[in-house]
Amino acid sequence: MPFCQNCGRPLNEGEVCHCQEAQQSPYMNQPYPQQGQPQPQQSPYMNQPYPQQGVPYPQGQQPYSYQYQQGQQPPKENKTAVGCVIAFAVCAATLPVIGILAAILVPSMIGYVAKSKTASANSAAKSCYRAIQTSLVELDNENELKEGVYIITNMPGKHDLNAPYNTEKLHSAIHKYFSDVENITFFAVIEGADVTYIAVYSDKDPKYIGTYPKASQVQEAVDYNGSYHSGGEDLETLYEIACDEVLPSGQIGEDA
Predict the structure, then answer these.
(1) Closest CA to 217 of 111, 108, 106, 109
(2) Which of 60, 167, 215, 241 is deepest in the core (most CB within 10 A)?
(3) Vertex 184, ends 245 and 130: CA angle to 5°?
(4) Residue among 216, 137, 119 at smallest CA distance from 177
(5) Contact 143, 238 (CB under 8 A)
């Protein structure tokens, strides 16, 4: 009995073994490339043409990478609900803390602002006091200063009261030594050649009154007598108190 010389299978008389036909060329029955020529590129789809848009895969089953080229998206995890729950929990935990901090910090900030503006008004009163005092010395050196107790002011609707001389030159000298006098409203009590009391407020913050030589405190202005007023008196009230103390009866409101 003859045998196949390749695989050793017994053969009948005249039978030819086809074992060698199963071993096909790696180039799928294509001719081998000659030396120096590039090897042909094999399709990743088992030597089938690449599928076109809308054309099913030839073997009936699309590869994974092709399944999501038809407008489909791979499934995603729904994290929106979880994120909302976490955000709500964080907000609920932080709101009480924010409320406590606000209750502590807001009054402190308001008090700090009021204290700062009162200090600024006191500083303006001191600067105006020095300018008036310097102007009085200048007038005294020019023999134009006369003894007396009187009030000078730039308050709207008010005039210098009981002045023993024309105070126009005094006001000009004050502007020379304190240019910011145009941005404040003030009145000052002068006795002889000295300023004994002055009260001012900034035109930007009329609520905060500064005084000198005794400084005002927050919401407590100092009057001519050195007394603190916690009722929040305005400059008009302090002016009337000073007039009652230093001017003879009947001269309040009269021109100098």
Answers:
(1) 111
(2) 167
(3) 70
(4) 137
(5) no
For 103, phi then psi, to 5°, come to -65, -30
CA–CA separation, 6 vs 92, rounded Å?
83
Q: How many CB atoms lie within 10 A of CB 152?
A: 23
Q: Which DSSP category does 156 fall into?
A: T
* pTM for this entry: 0.58
b/e per residue, 112-140, with b = 16+ CB within 10 A? eeeeebbbebbebbbbbbebbbebbebbe
Using CA atoms, how far apart are residues 149 and 196, in angstroms rounded to an integer?
10
3-state secondary structure of 19: helix
* Amino acid letter, residue 250: G
Strand (E) or helix (H) holding 129: helix 80-141
Tell me the two tokens of residue 198: 């002055």
Give the start-end residues of each E strand in the chain.
149-153, 184-191, 194-202, 205-212, 221-222, 228-229
Contact 135/167 with Cβ under 8 angstroms? no
Contact predicate 244/226, CB 8 Å = no
Bridge partner list, 236: none
Q: What percentage of the chain exceeds 70 in pLDDT?
A: 66
Give the three-state DSSP class for 161. Answer: strand
The Cα–Cα gap between 191 and 150 comes to: 7
